[in-house]
């Protein structure tokens, strides 16, 4: 931080010392920036945007290549991404990365942070094909800075594996997940909460490949770690229960409905009854409920939530599930109309970007 300069006798005659304008701006920037970033971490997005935009104005007075401007822009990218303002988020992330590369070159911790931010913003909006090479670049920088077995490298491997999975590069994703798993078990231990995410994601990969006997122990282990390390209603615990419920449904096990109901209750407690995760869980429940009235109620609820929140692909899937229930209860004509709407939604949602699973 720049040291403060004291003013002599003239300032004393005015009743005290006066700070130079540049120092005042630096302090203003730090106050606004820290308030905005803390608000973001607390989930107060409107406050975060207001404070960080004020910090951006101050930071620009330091020059367009100042590291404080890059930090503010990087953090604004996360805020705008969380708000669903994807175009603005990408612009902030790209600007921050450009400044940091100009200052530091290619291999620096700040550059790695900006690569992760840009990839995360692209990933969050569903542009996984664009995110993939950025995650790969981030991995390369992390390996150069931290060595091949650092936890930062494991995190980079996890992120790259996740987008490769979505892109259908399953062999590549499997190898990356396994490498991340080995690093985490060596550096953090077998009960690390960070390990749970890798176990969960690798289990989901095997589930998608219908390798149920390989997927289940990984998913069971992830759930056990999360239950031990997290609060009981944490959404990650719900996610583990949900995927295990759906796996058990695929295997024809009787407890599938119970697991999905547990997951739904946790999503409702932590995220609210109208969250898209709750809708997805309701839709899955409609497929496994033995009571058809209950199945219909779950499917209707899922559609109702996703009419207002969620992407067209999610809504189309929920509509298909609703149609399937209607066919079970003999309402074939209504089911046909709903299936047609689901197909129309899928056609309208088609784009060059690959949607997430």
Coarse shape: globular
Q: What is the end-to-end distance?
A: 46 Å
What oligomeric state do the depicted chains represent?
single chain
Residues in helix, %: over 70%
Structure summary, number of beta strands: 0
Proportion of residues in β-strands: under 5%
Give the CATH architecture of the domain at 230-350. Alpha Horseshoe
CATH homologous superfamily caption of the domain at 230-350: Tetratricopeptide repeat domain
> What is the CATH topology of the domain at 230-350?
Serine Threonine Protein Phosphatase 5, Tetratricopeptide repeat
Enumerate the spans where pLDDT stays under 50 for 5 or more consecutive residues: 1-21, 351-357
Strand-pairing-aware structural class: mainly alpha
In sequence order, what are the helices and strands, one letter per element?
Answer: HHHHHHHHHHHHHHHHH
CATH uppermost class of the domain at 230-350 = Mainly Alpha
Gyration radius, rounded: 24 Å
* Main sheet overview: none
Structure description:
It is a single chain. Helix content is 77%, strand content 0%. By secondary structure, the protein is mainly alpha-helical. Among the domains are: 31-146, Serine Threonine Protein Phosphatase 5, Tetratricopeptide repeat (Alpha Horseshoe), CATH 1.25.40; 230-350, Serine Threonine Protein Phosphatase 5, Tetratricopeptide repeat. The longest helix is centred in the N-terminal third of the chain and has 21 residues, at 21-41. Mean pLDDT is 88; it is low at 1-21 and 351-357.
